[in-house]
Amino acid sequence: MIGALPTAASLYERVRRVIPPIEWPAFADDIDAILALKRQRNAVILAHNYQTPEIFHCVADIVGDSLALARKAMSVDADVIVLAGVHFMAETAKLLNPDKTVLIPDLAAGCSLADSITAEDVRLMRQRYPGVPVITYVNTSAAVKAESDICCTSGNALAVVKSLGVPRVIMLPDEYLAKNIAAQTKVEIIAWKGRCEVHERFTAADIRELREAHPGVTVLAHPECPPEVVTVADFAGSTAAMSDYVGRHKPARVVLMTECSMSDNVAVEHPEVEFVRPCNLCPHMKRITLANIRTALEETRHIVTIDPRVAERARWAVERMLFV
What we know:
alpha/beta, Rossmann fold, 3 domains
C-alpha cells in the first residue's frame, strides 16, 4: 500500500490489447476512485481469473484461481478485503481472515455448483456411505464445507484424493470434476450431480469444429468440463494451470475451454499468442463490476458473515486442504 498511486491513465497501456480505447473512459473514473479508496481504507481486492480485464489488471491486488486466492488470503495485510468473485469465494476469504472485514460487491454473485448441494445432502451421503471421507470442492457454501473432511480445488483435487490414503472417497458437488479425477487414480470416487453452468456447455464437437476452423490450435480445457471434452483436449487443468501452460509452451494459437474473461486476462500477459475465444460467460462473475466494487468500498457493502459454529468446522476443512 506504499508508493506512488497509479492512475487509470497510466494503467491503460496494460490492457489496451483487450479493451478498445473508446470503452476506456467508461472505466477510468471508477478505477481512479477505487485506487484512492483502497489506500484510504487499507483495503485489498482479491480477483478471480474470470473477472473482466479492467478489474483483474487495473484494481486487483491479488489475482488467481480459487486455490491461489485461498492461499494468499491467509497473508493479506489489510483491514478490508473486497472479493471480486462469487459468494463462496468471499466466504472462504472470511473463513481464513475471521478478524478482517470481507466485502462482496454483489450478494447475488452465486454459483450453480454451490447451489447444487446443501449441508443436509452431505449428511445424507455420510449416512449412505458410512466411514467414507468427504472431499468438498471449494465451490460450495461454508455450511457444506463444515460437513466435509477436507476441501479441494480443481488445481489440487488429485493431490487431495491421494493424501487421504483410502480406497474410496466421496467428492462433492461437481460430477465432471469427480469423473475427470477418477480417470487419473485407482481410488473409487463417489460423485454428486452438480455441474458448472459455464463448463457443462462445452462439447467434444465444439473442439472438433475449432480444430477444423483453426488448424494447429492448442486446446486447453478446465476439469469442470465433461470428460469427453477433457479427453480430446491437448491439456486439462485449473485456470492457473492453463495460464501456466500458455506461459511455458507459448502455443502460436490457443483456445481456453472456460469462462470468457480468462482468455482476455491471459492474453494481456502473452501478446505473442493468438487466442481463439469460444465465449461462455459466467453470469455470476459478471455481476461484479467496477461500479459495485467502488460502492462496496465507499459504503462498506456487503459484509460477509458466517455463523461461528459453522465457520470453525469449515475453516478446518479449508486449512487442511492448504497443507496438502
